[in-house]
Amino acid sequence: NFAGILVITLNYFIQSSASYNPHRAEPSKPKKLQYLLEPPVQVEVAGRRGDNVTLPCILRIKPNHYKIKWTKLDPEHLGQQNIIMISNANAFKPYGPVGRRASLLRAHTMDASLLLSHLELGDDGRYQCELINGIEDENIVITLRIEGVVFPYQSQHGRYKFNFHEAELACAEQDGMLASYSQLYRAWTEGLDWCNAGWIHDGTVHYPIVHPRPVCGGNLPAGIRSYGPKNKNHDRFDAFCFTSQIPGSVFYITGAFSYDQAVYACKRQGSALALVGQLYAAWRFQKYDQCNGGWLKDGSVRFPIVSPRKRCGGVPEAGVRTFGFPCKTTHLYGAYCYR
Q1: Which pLDDT does position 64 carry in this prediction?
Q2: 253: closest CA among 293, 203, 306?
Q3: How many domains does the chain have?
Q4: Which pLDDT belongs to residue 2?
Q5: Where in the sequence is the domain holding 279, given as residue range(s)?
Q6: Which InterPro entries match (predicted)?
Q7: What is the pTM of this model?
Q8: Secondary structure class of 206 (helix, strand, coil)
Q9: How many CB atoms lie within 10 A of CB 296?
Q10: Which residues lie closer than 8 Å to 286 by C-beta, 6 or more apart?
Q11: b/e for 266-279, b at 16 or more Cβ within 10 A?
Q12: Per-residue confidence at 121, pLDDT binned at 50, 70, 90?
């Protein structure tokens, strides 16, 4: 009898909780800006690595005494290292590595826009322009998106060999960095379909699926499959790396080289074997298309396809194809060099 009463009570509680919908007070509307010009909705500035960009911040009214503080809103860091610069009407003080590449545009007397030069991969994120006058402080937030390409990366020793820190290092060695979730999501919307889970920048693990299939999560719908946060020291997966445009160019040398011969072939041309990220960047931004497998610096063999065709991998989508990591004494492939 007690068990029956308990079940009935629990059922009533669950049903009551599910149907309970209190009248919550509506969230207060954001305060109308007095000194700063309201930016357009969802302001986003886009740029590629190496570009110079301007993050807009315009004063509507200039207080008698004020400071402008620019900060990068990075949830993984707190404190002074987030501040890019603090400025008054006469001078500004830069902070941190981003501050060294930052200045105020000052196109006119009401302009507090931030000029960022020589963009780096890690500059992607949200930035806050704050007017401080000790009475009515105000701020606006601008998003800076680095245009680039996400590529999956696996150890030469096989699948799921990287802990988080090793994945970070692997991406850096291939001219990239671990992708953010928003970068991975954008890549998925552009067609990235990959059945191996990989680390991303915030320490979580995911894999993007465009074409659901039984071996990749069963009958779940297309989307970003998530394993959530994992132990950064002990759990092991692949990596999703992000890179952007490159200052140089990638070119192919025809031949049937071993790995060492490919290194020498590039060296004779005043270059070096390309990194994986450099090949992806050339494919994305320079529309590099080459239907021949070639050695890369990490010992893998790949080739980039912009215009898919039957005799170039037979896959209908554009992309960078891979032969994995062949034996380095194999004499079958050309060389992709970077200069």
Answers
A1: 85
A2: 293
A3: 3
A4: 38
A5: 250-338
A6: C-type_lectin-like/link_sf, CTDL_fold, Hyaluronan_bind_Proteoglycan, Ig-like_dom, Ig-like_dom_sf, Ig-like_fold, Ig_sub, Ig_sub2
A7: 0.85
A8: strand
A9: 26
A10: 249, 250
A11: beeeebebbbbbbb
A12: very high
